[in-house]
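User: I'm preparing a small set of examples for a lab meeting where we compare how different chains pack in three dimensions. I only have the primary sequence for this one, and I'd like the structure in token form so I can line it up with the others. Please keep the answer compact; I'll paste it straight into my notes.
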Amino acid sequence: MKTSSNNEKKKIVGLLSLIFLVLLVLVMVVKKRKGMAETDTFDNPEISSSQKKLFPEVDSTDSIDINQKINAKAEKNEGVGLQSGQKGPEVDSDNKLSKERPGIPLTSDLKKQLNKLYEAQKKVITTPEEENLKKNWLKDPLLIQQMKDLLLSQKFLDHPQFEIIQNIAIEFLKEALNASSEKDDNQIVRQAVLEIVRDAQIENTELSVEDRQKLAAPKIEILFNGVAIRPDFFENIESQLPGPATLQIWKNIQVRQSEMEAESRREASEK
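Assistant: Understood. Below is the structure token output for the 271-residue chain.
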């Protein structure tokens, strides 16, 4: 009987810890959205308002041209994105802080691309040329894979500009979802967002609560927005979730979406 009672207590403690983690993550995402709504940018207090580049130490002008990559010959394709554990070029000193963590490194080339995305996402008015470039970015397999790998990487969790980097990658994938259509059947985007949802890192209790919160944020954003944008990508998603923490997040999202739908119906009936 004592053993049974102890087991029950452990289950209750585990459940409470799980609920606490999910609530913390949701609060973090709400605060992040509030901040984004107020500024409409990904500004960091440590970055001056006149600074246009996230990483001023690298020159974005000589980064890889997306149009060239799209038109490259098939035989030159070396795979889609940097895979976990694969070495990348020019690994800089930022990665020394989290050398042992799994995931892709924040290379100079990746910083250059983040600079470009950062500048583009801050713009309110864009030229037709910039719009065309953005459309190409949102369909580029390498860039989609890189942003997905970045969101799953633990190597930059302690980076001083972590929130900006994460926001850039999340917004990019949300825009890629928006840009996809059922006619295109963009399997690259579908695979990327589903890999984020299926990722089991937040189920690992050996990671700190703070790290699990950071890794959970992309899941929440992708699930919350993705189901509305491309419901066909998320059919039977509950059976694909990696564990109880992700399942609790999904249930909370469903509750919130039901509340929003009810609120919309009420507002419509009052008009």
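A couple of notes for your slides: The CA atoms of residues 47 and 142 lie 28 Å apart. The first helix runs from residue 2 to 39.

User: Perfect, thanks.
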